[in-house]
């Protein structure tokens, strides 16, 4: 999806999904009471200020207009893989998607720690190789 580059930084993100939406309760809570929400799908991607952002839809919620950095989605790499397979011309995928995907498959936190390349997109050459590997697996 092509969009004109935005010269204004994204607005501050509220707790997700947006407050005051009359929808479902969170799917789970952590031991310390933090609410966990389940993503339904990745809707769009774009680059802002050299960083990769995604628009998503949440299960049980109406459309979310906010853009989330790629690093916010590192615990659902399967949705990113699906999105980029279906939208090969979209911005992205993230450089560390293979690391996140491996952590998902192995059910580990290894590789999910904060990293300087979390919100960067693959280079054109990296993306081509990644897409070829993905198509071979499908």
Give an account of the 3D structure.
The chain is of the alpha+beta class. Helices cover 25% and strands 17% of the residues. It is built from three helices and five strands; from the N terminus they run βββββααα. The strands form two sheets. The chain has a three-stranded antiparallel sheet with strand order 3-4-5, covered by helices on one side. A two-stranded antiparallel ribbon has the order 1-2. β3 (39-48) and β4 form a beta hairpin. α1 (77-86) crosses α2 (97-106). The two termini are 23 Å apart. Mean pLDDT is 80; it is low at 1-16 and 18-26.
Concise overview:
The chain has helices spanning 77-86, 97-106, 124-137; strands spanning 28-29, 35-36, 39-48, 51-58, 68-69. By secondary structure, the chain is α+β, with helices and mostly antiparallel strands.
Q: Quaternary arrangement of the chains shown?
A: single chain
* Neighbour order of strands in the largest sheet: 3-4-5
Poorly predicted runs are 1-16, 18-26
The rounded distance between the terminal residues' Cα atoms is 23 Å
Please state roughly what percent of the residues sit in beta strands, choosing from under 5%, 5-15%, 15-25%, 25-35%, 35-45% or over 45%.
Answer: 15-25%
Radius of gyration: 15 Å
Query: Would you tell me the structural class of the helices and strands?
Result: alpha+beta
What percent of the residues sit in helical stretches (DSSP H or I)?
A: 10-25%
The number of helical elements comes to: 3
